[in-house]
């Protein structure tokens, strides 16, 4: 039986990857120490999802409560199994939170990734290494685009080269990334370098908003799941700046993991792909509130704060053309309305 190692296995993308690869017949080794609860409090705990995985996958799933920064513990896991694929999703995911503890943020995102890469190189060099990066590697450069204000969203002119989405040609230099963005840049470049320098099969997926019903949404991370949670429960939601017209593309965690699968079938060395909902699935804050209100039949309780978050994007839509050119049989299975409807019906709101 083939074996997949998934870090952050109780999180949104990690749990989706665990279930997906288990269905493909893989033995799943999960690493997750529920640091999300440390970052964001009890409401963001992923413990419920770990239990869910253990129940659903049974003996096919082996869980390790290990900190990815602990090389000795990680090495023990690598010595115990022969991995065919490593899917590294564990991270500190919030640029707001990173400012509170920059050392923790960098050690988890950058050093933790280096620990995973070194053990991959030493013990599983024939495997595929997949890293969930972020569009924050581009910093706030997208805010320099010639955006125009429409009734419910900011938008690019249709003639602009990035109208269908931002591609991998956008520079990461001379831009404000946030502390979180910098730690993810370091990890992103490390993963590429291990592919190019050591000739290993590695890739980074620079995600837009990754979402789905298994997201433990919280104010500092997971905008769509958290927004829907607030409307469903009556909790106050806060919009930070840009008149609530800021646009995000949302990709369902299943569609992202399916990208992993396609890459794994024909892996390359040191690739970087933008991965988001593209023009297939994007929404502004105001539009997302309206759609959620209609589906749930409830009015949102929200407030507007004029000050935007530092380095936050006004408009970000991913161009996935590069990935589709390499893997033309991959395509989206969820659009924006389907994503919102699924979270409304099956989201984790407790």
Please supply descriptive tags for the structure shown above.
four-stranded mixed β-sheet; alpha/beta; 12 helices; 350 residues
Q: Which strand order spans the largest sheet, edge to edge or round the barrel?
A: 3-2-1-4-5-8-12
Rounded to the nearest angstrom, the distance between the terminal CA atoms is: 37 Å
The rounded Rg comes to 19 Å
Beta-strand content bin = 15-25%
Topology:
Elements: E1 3-7, H1 12-23, E2 27-31, H2 35-40, H3 47-57, E3 61-64, H4 71-80, E4 85-88, H5 95-98, H6 102-123, E5 128-134, E6 148-149, E7 154-155, H7 179-198, E8 201-207, E9 209-211, H8 223-233, E10 237-240, E11 247-252, H9 253-265, E12 271-275, E13 282-284, H10 285-296, E14 302-305, E15 315-316, H11 321-326, H12 336-346
Parallel strand pairs: 1-2, 1-4, 2-3, 4-5, 5-8, 8-12, 9-11, 10-14, 11-15
Antiparallel strand pairs: 6-7, 11-13
Helix pairs in contact: 1-3, 1-9, 4-6, 6-7, 8-10, 10-12
Structure overview:
With 350 residues, the protein is an alpha/beta fold. The chain contains twelve helices and 15 strands. The chain has helices at residues 12-23, 35-40, 47-57, 71-80, 95-98, 102-123, 179-198, 223-233, 253-265, 285-296, 321-326, 336-346, and strands at residues 3-7, 27-31, 61-64, 85-88, 128-134, 148-149, 154-155, 201-207, 209-211, 237-240, 247-252, 271-275, 282-284, 302-305, 315-316. The strands form four sheets. It has a seven-stranded parallel sheet, with helices on both faces. Strands 9, 11, 13 and 15 form a four-stranded mixed sheet that branches. α8 packs across α10 and α10 crosses α12 (336-346). The model has no long low-confidence stretch (mean pLDDT 95).
């Amino acid at each position: 039986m083939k074996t997949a190692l998934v870090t952050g296995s109780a999180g949104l993308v990690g749990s989706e990857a665990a279930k997906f690869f288990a269905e493909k017949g893989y033995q799943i080794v999960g690493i997750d120490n529920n640091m999300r609860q440390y970052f964001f409090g009890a409401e963001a705990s992923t413990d419920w999802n770990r239990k869910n995985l253990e129940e659903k996958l049974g003996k096919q799933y082996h869980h390790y409560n290990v900190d990815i920064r602990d090389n000795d513990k990680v090495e023990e896991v690598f010595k115990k199994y022969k991995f065919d694929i490593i899917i590294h999703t564990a991270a500190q995911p919030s640029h707001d939170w990173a400012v509170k503890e920059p050392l923790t943020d960098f050690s988890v995102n950058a050093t933790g990734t280096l620990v995973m890469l070194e053990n991959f190189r030493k013990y599983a060099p024939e495997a595929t290494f997949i890293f969930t990066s972020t569009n924050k590697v581009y910093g706030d450069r997208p805010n320099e685009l010639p955006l125009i204000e429409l009734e419910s969203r900011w938008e690019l002119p249709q003639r602009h080269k990035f109208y269908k989405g931002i591609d991998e040609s956008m520079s990461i230099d001379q831009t404000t990334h946030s502390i979180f963005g910098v730690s993810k840049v370091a990890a992103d470049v490390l993963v590429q370098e291990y592919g190019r320098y050591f000739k290993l099969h590695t890739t980074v997926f620079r995600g837009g908003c990754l979402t789905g019903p298994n997201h433990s949404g919280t104010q500092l991370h997971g905008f769509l799941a958290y927004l829907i949670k607030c409307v469903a429960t009556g909790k106050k939601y806060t919009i930070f700046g840009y008149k609530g017209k800021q646009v995000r593309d949302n990709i369902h965690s299943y569609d992202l993991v399916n990208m992993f699968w396609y890459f794994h079938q024909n892996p390359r060395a040191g690739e970087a792909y933008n991965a988001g909902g593209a023009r297939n699935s994007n929404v502004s804050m105001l539009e997302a509130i309206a759609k959620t209100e209609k589906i749930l039949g409830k009015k949102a309780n929200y407030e507007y704060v004029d000050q935007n978050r530092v380095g936050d994007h006004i408009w970000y839509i991913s161009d996935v053309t590069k990935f589709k050119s390499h893997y033309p049989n991959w395509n989206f299975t969820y659009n924006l309305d389907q994503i919102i409807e699924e979270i409304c019906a099956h989201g984790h709101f407790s």
